[in-house]
Amino acid sequence: MKIAICDDDGLFRQTLKDNVIGYCQEKRIAADVYEFDAPDTLLADKAVFDVVFMDYQFESQDGLEAAKMMRARNFTGSIIFVTAFPQFVYDSFEVQPFRFFVKPLQEEKLRAAMDQYLRQHKLLNHIVIIQDGEQFTIDAADILYLEGDGKYCLIRTANNTYRSSKTLSQVQILLPQHCFYRIHKSYVVNMYSISCIQGRELLLVNGEKAVIGRSHLKDFKKSYMDFVKNYYVRL
């Protein structure tokens, strides 16, 4: 998912970016967040954005005019206005915004809007497991790792272990591909659950350890470094 933040207030842009990245990490959603300090730089960018957070008033051009130009170019993504001028809410209807927020933006309102966006676009990942006649719904974000068990797959969360009648490969393909990585022929780890890497050994956040297969080690280390670069906030 590609997200743009267009606002001439640098501090606000950074705060909103941190909140959006934190939310996406929590939901295990792959997201690239781009910053723009003026509408013209946003309009000049060739990226295709899924969500655009837009301020309403800039020195040289207002955000509504920029949004109109985007719609005229067949932009079909979601526009979220974030502004200090609530009186413009009705004018914004012309470009069919997903949301119109008044600054300061409360984090709970941001999270509620993102939740609705993910639901509408079916980006929230849940899997349903039937075990011993009972049905369990698991959020992909809660899965620490998968382990192959013959024709079955064990799904490990922080609190439970579930046994699926699907194979390891069949379960893996249902999960977000950017963070679930096969480190061994019978082991798939959620890279968000990795606390530490020591040689071929992974320490997971629940204290368990996993060993990377020798043939997977080189590719895994590269993939994990790319993952950290793209999906973690560096302090």
Level-2 CATH architecture of the largest domain? 3-Layer(aba) Sandwich
CATH class of the largest domain: Alpha Beta
Main pleated sheet = 5 strands, parallel
Radius of gyration: 21 Å
Major sheet: arrangement of strands: 2-1-3-4-5
Reading the helices and strands in chain order gives EHEHEHEHEHEEEEEHEEEEEH
Report helical residue fraction: 25-40%
Q: What is the distance, rounded to the nearest whole angstrom, between the alpha carbons of the first and last residues?
A: 23 Å
Per the principal axes of the C-alpha atoms, what is the gross shape? elongated
According to CATH, what is the topology of the largest domain?
Rossmann fold
Concise account of the structure shown:
This protein is α/β, with parallel strands linked by helices and 235 residues long. The protein has helices at residues 10-27, 39-44, 63-72, 89-92, 107-120, 168-172, 217-231; strands spanning 2-6, 32-36, 51-54, 78-83, 99-102, 126-131, 134-139, 143-149, 152-157, 161-164, 180-184, 187-190, 194-198, 201-204, 209-211. The chain has two domains: 2-120, 3-Layer(aba) Sandwich (Rossmann fold), CATH 3.40.50.2300; 126-231, OB fold (Dihydrolipoamide Acetyltransferase, E2P) (Beta Barrel), CATH 2.40.50.
Features:
235 residues; alpha/beta; Rossmann fold; 5-stranded antiparallel beta sheet; 7 helices; 15 strands
Q: What would your notes on this structure say?
A:
The structure is a single chain. With 235 residues, the protein is α/β, with parallel strands linked by helices. Helix content is 31%, strand content 31%. The protein has helices at residues 10-27, 39-44, 63-72, 89-92, 107-120, 168-172, 217-231; strands at residues 2-6, 32-36, 51-54, 78-83, 99-102, 126-131, 134-139, 143-149, 152-157, 161-164, 180-184, 187-190, 194-198, 201-204, 209-211. The strands form four sheets. Strands 2-1-3-4-5 form a five-stranded parallel sheet, with helices on both faces. Strand 1, helix 1 (10-27) and strand 2 form a beta-alpha-beta unit. The protein starts with a strand and ends with a helix.
